[in-house]
Each structure stands twice: as structure tokens, then as C-alpha cells.
From TrEMBL:
<feature type="region of interest" description="Disordered">
    <location>
        <begin position="1"/>
        <end position="30"/>
    </location>
</feature>
<feature type="compositionally biased region" description="Polar residues">
    <location>
        <begin position="1"/>
        <end position="13"/>
    </location>
</feature>
<dbReference type="GO" id="GO:0032259">
    <property type="term" value="P:methylation"/>
</dbReference>
<feature type="domain" description="Cobalamin-independent methionine synthase MetE C-terminal/archaeal">
    <location>
        <begin position="25"/>
        <end position="375"/>
    </location>
</feature>
<dbReference type="Pfam" id="PF01717">
    <property type="entry name" value="Meth_synt_2"/>
</dbReference>
<protein>
    <submittedName>
        <fullName>Methyltetrahydrofolate methyltransferase</fullName>
    </submittedName>
</protein>
<keyword id="KW-0808">Transferase</keyword>
<dbReference type="GO" id="GO:0008168">
    <property type="term" value="F:methyltransferase activity"/>
</dbReference>
<keyword id="KW-0489">Methyltransferase</keyword>
<dbReference type="InterPro" id="IPR002629">
    <property type="entry name" value="Met_Synth_C/arc"/>
</dbReference>
<dbReference type="InterPro" id="IPR038071">
    <property type="entry name" value="UROD/MetE-like_sf"/>
</dbReference>
């Protein structure tokens, strides 16, 4: 092979025509003022659900255009129709209901508003409203790849209050029905045109931090049992998925108004995460010292597993030094081939409708920053 041909082949190998892309994003975006205002008006009874949806449609069209302008090849609807990244999806599963608990979820020095979910009947996926949400995104994506984000099945176990007697006494029945519901969901989104689906999961954070040990004990499981349970939940859900559907997972340590719930490296769950999940890619938080080092990546055995390094923070607006980001990508490439790596923000910009503490312009600058750095690294 000539030197020129070899160079061309290497260049092509570093480009990705399918997701996850070299420059990618997690999903949620800061809710715009028109959407925030309309949601308050709807809650007060001043506008109808149809009027709210039209305002959401208009704003989603605008932000899809803005995402494309940053150079991103992947677009989302910013989760503009949701109040929470997980509850809105889960409470629309059959057998699951939303409720208002006494207290919200505790983050670092701040607490969310009260919101919870409970399992009261047989879990299933039938007429879910987010199918229409995806279809709208798909219809306006144009030449970009639309990505649908939903919570991992682990989140129903992790955040759900199980009230159905038969599930309380038989966890295998709970997991069986949940996995079947997710299989239906994945197929339904695929039938709607989705070829890029992301599972979001904060449950793995219990293994990454000291405070997580108490949560593991509360589940009545050993750490090893819980790791196996989480892995089985995901693997059963994605089994038999269509060959041309990319399914990734974002492992999150919490993201609410620029703060977090957990800290610690991936070490305690690394072997399961990197060598035990039948996924196409993993979005990994690596934006600060809370995330630990890249050593756990040594457990990556599959050459086809794509790792998206969340080295650009979504928690504040200041742009990172590009050379620092490139240096960290180089560090990660000591454990995993550069061809298996990509770049993204470490999380979404608004996991809840409150959003992180930065401006919309800073948000777009962050996405452009990811695109520009990725162009330099994988050129």
C-alpha cells in the first residue's frame, strides 16, 4: 500500500459516519424563555395543551437549527417537553404513576422539588406520548442524525417505589416485565425512524462513591449482586435490537443546577461497565477530578465499543483550554485506541427544566468548542 493510500485509509478510519460521532452531545438543552413561560401558563390554565405544544414545536425547530449551526451532526429536541430527564418517560409506562413525595432529591448543597414515581400495576409499554415527540424531531432533523434519549430501565428500580405486591415478592417478575416493556419501547422508536437511542443512567453512581455504599445496603444486595442486576436489566432490554440501531448509555453522577449527587472514579464497577454491557457506546463523565482517572478503561476488551469522553463541562460557561482537552484525550488513548474515542460535554445542560447555571449562548459555545476540538484531534 502506498504512503498516500495508507494516509487516506487512516483518515477515513478516524471519521465516523454513524453515531456516536467524534463530536457528540448528551441530550438535554437549556429550556428557552418561551417554553418556560408557556409551561407556567399551561399550569395556570391560561393556555391549552395544544397551544403549549405549538410553542414547544416552534422552539424545538429553532434549537435544532442552532445545534446544526454549531457543527453537530447529531440533534436532539433538548428534552424541551419534559420537566425531568427520567420521570416524564417512566411515569408514562403502563403500571407506573407519578406522585409528590415529602422531599426532593438531595444534590450537593441543593435539593430538587419533590417528585417521585411508583409502580402500581403490570409494567408495559403501549401508547407512550414520547413516540410522537420523537416523530416530530425526526421530521425536522434534515441531514442531521436525530437522537432519542430515555432513562435506563435501571432507573425504575432505582427511583421507583414498588407498591404492586407481586413485584415486591418477586423481583425476577418485575425485571422480566420491565425488560419486555423496554424491548417494546426500543422497537417502537425504531419503527418511528429512530436509529440512535441513548439510555441515561445514574444508578451506577452507587458504586462510584463512598455514600453509595449505604444505598447498596438499602437495596438488600451485595455490590456484586447489584452490578449483575443492573447489567442484566440493560442487556435484556437491548437484546435482539435491530442491527442498524445504535444504542448508547450515558453514565451520570447527577446534574441539577450545576451540581451533582456523587463523586468517584469508575474503578468499582469498571469491569461490568466496560466489559459486561452489550451496548454500542458509553458516554462517560470526565470533566473534573470527581470522575477519577482513565485507568479503568483497561477493562475495555471490545474493539467496536465507542467511548465518548465528557471532558467539556456543561455545568459552567467558561470554555476549557483546548490543549488541556487534547492532552486528556491523548491520556485516554493509552488505554483505548483513539479510533474508539469521541468527545462530548460531560452531561446535558438541563437534566431538569431548571437547567444549569450558564446562558444559552454559553451552551452553544460549549457545543462549538466540542466540534472544533474534535476536528483537530480526529483530522
Amino acid at each position: 500500500m502506498s504512503q498516500q493510500a495508507a494516509s487516506t485509509e487512516q483518515h477515513q478510519s478516524l471519521q465516523r459516519k454513524k453515531p456516536p460521532f467524534r463530536a457528540d452531545q448528551v441530550g438535554s438543552l437549556l429550556r428557552s424563555e418561551p417554553v418556560k413561560k408557556a409551561r407556567l401558563q399551561k399550569a395556570a390554565g391560561d393556555i391549552t395543551a395544544e397551544q403549549l405544544r405549538q410553542i414547544e414545536n416552534d422552539e424545538i425547530i429553532r434549537i435544532v437549527k442552532k445545534q446544526k449551526e454549531t457543527g453537530m451532526k447529531v440533534v436532539t429536541d433538548g428534552e424541551f417537553r419534559r420537566a425531568w430527564w427520567h420521570f416524564d418517560f417512566l411515569e408514562n409506562l403502563d403500571g407506573v404513576e407519578g406522585f409528590k413525595p415529602e422531599s426532593g432529591i438531595q444534590f450537593h448543597n441543593v435539593k430538587t422539588k419533590p417528585r417521585g414515581i411508583k409502580v402500581t400495576g403490570d409494567i408495559d409499554f403501549t401508547n407512550h406520548p414520547m413516540l410522537e415527540d420523537y416523530k416530530f424531531l425526526h421530521s425536522i432533523a434534515g441531514d442531521a442524525t436525530p437522537k432519542m434519549t430515555i432513562p435506563s430501565p435501571n432507573m425504575l428500580f432505582f427511583r421507583g417505589k414498588v407498591e404492586k405486591d407481586s413485584y415486591q415478592n418477586d423481583y425476577e417478575a418485575f425485571q422480566h416485565d420491565l425488560s419486555l416493556a423496554y424491548k417494546k419501547a426500543i422497537q417502537a422508536f425504531y419503527d418511528a425512524g429512530c436509529r440512535y437511542l441513548q439510555l441515561d443512567d445514574t444508578a451506577w453512581a452507587v458504586f462510584l462513591s463512598e455514600q453509595g455504599k449505604k444505598q447498596i445496603e438499602a437495596f438488600g444486595k451485595t455490590p456484586d449482586e447489584l452490578r449483575q442486576l443492573f447489567a442484566k436489566s440493560i442487556n435484556d432490554a437491548v437484546a435482539d435490537r435491530p442491527d442498524d440501531l445504535t444504542v448508547t448509555m450515558h453514565i451520570c453522577r447527577g446534574n441539577f443546577q450545576s451540581t451533582w449527587t456523587a463523586e468517584g472514579g469508575y474503578d468499582a464497577a469498571a469491569e461490568t461497565i466496560f466489559d459486561g454491557l452489550n451496548l454500542d457506546g458509553l458516554f462517560l463523565e470526565y470533566d473534573d477530578s470527581r470522575s477519577g482517572g482513565f485507568e479503568p478503561l483497561r477493562y475495555v476488551k471490545r474493539p467496536d465499543l465507542q467511548l465518548v469522553l465528557g471532558l467539556v463541562t456543561s455545568k459552567y460557561g467558561e470554555l476549557e483550554n483546548p490543549d488541556d482537552i487534547k492532552r486528556r484525550i491523548e491520556e485516554a488513548s493509552r488505554y483505548v485506541s483513539l479510533n474508539q474515542l469521541s468527545l462530548s460535554p460531560q452531561c446535558g445542560f438541563a437534566s431538569t427544566e431548571e437547567g444549569n447555571l450558564l446562558t444559552e449562548e454559553q451552551q452553544w459555545a460549549k457545543l462549538r468548542h466540542v466540534v472544533e476540538i474534535a476536528k483537530d484531534v480526529w483530522k
